[in-house]
Design brief:
Keywords: Membrane, Transmembrane, Transmembrane helix. It is a single-pass membrane protein. This is Late embryogenesis abundant protein LEA-2 subgroup domain-containing protein. It comes from Digitaria exilis. One of its GO terms (biological process) is defense response to other organism. About 30% of the residues lie in helices and about 45% in strands. It has 2 helices and 12 strands; from the N terminus they run H-E-E-E-E-E-E-E-H-E-E-E-E-E. The protein has 2 domains: about 50 residues; about 160 residues. The termini are far apart. It has about 210 residues and is of the alpha+beta class. The strands form 2 sheets. Strands 3, 4, 5, 8, 9, 10 and 12 form a 7-stranded antiparallel sheet that branches. Strands 1, 2, 6, 7 and 11 form a 5-stranded antiparallel sheet that branches.
Amino acid sequence: MGKAASGVSSLLCCPCRCLFCGVLSCLFSVLTCIFFSAGLVALVLYLLFRPHIIRATAVSGDISTFALTPRTWILSYNLSVGLQLQNPNKRIALRYHDVAAHAFYEGQRIADVSLPDFFQDTGETTTLEPVFSGEAPLVGGVAAAGFRREAAEGSTFSVDVKVTAHVKLKLWVITVPGPKPKIDCPLRIHRCNNSDHGTAPAPEFQPKECRVWF
């Protein structure tokens, strides 16, 4: 009696089990086909366009004013930086928009400036020249101590300049949304009007490769 009931139960469940297995098998096949097709398309596009990450180099830096008021720790600054952005791609042109530069000192953001949108053809190099001028408070005694130390050691200051932007990729006649590059340039810039060393020549700015990531 028990065996008969078990056989009937198996017969009743078998169609449902087969249907469930068939749906899973079909879904797995569809997903596998989608992933395989997407991977194949990505591989073909990569081999066709050979994309390369942009290169950024800081080629100049100038500080005419960099002073900290005692007690209030207000930093007065006037600095400019020259950055060269190179598009190393041979088949992809780049269109930059919402470009902005940010200056940091002792890990604190002291200034932001907007830069004009621009188009960069294949293999082209573009120079950006952000200028930062104004005042900003330094929070905490550690930042103020860092300023006093660098001022006493020759007035060469550690300024971090970062650039952000949105990029569109031009592939022949098609323009598609691209990544959002972030450029980070930790620099050492000498204060030009430093009077502590008389007429001693200021150290020459050394070009520096910047870090680029997405």
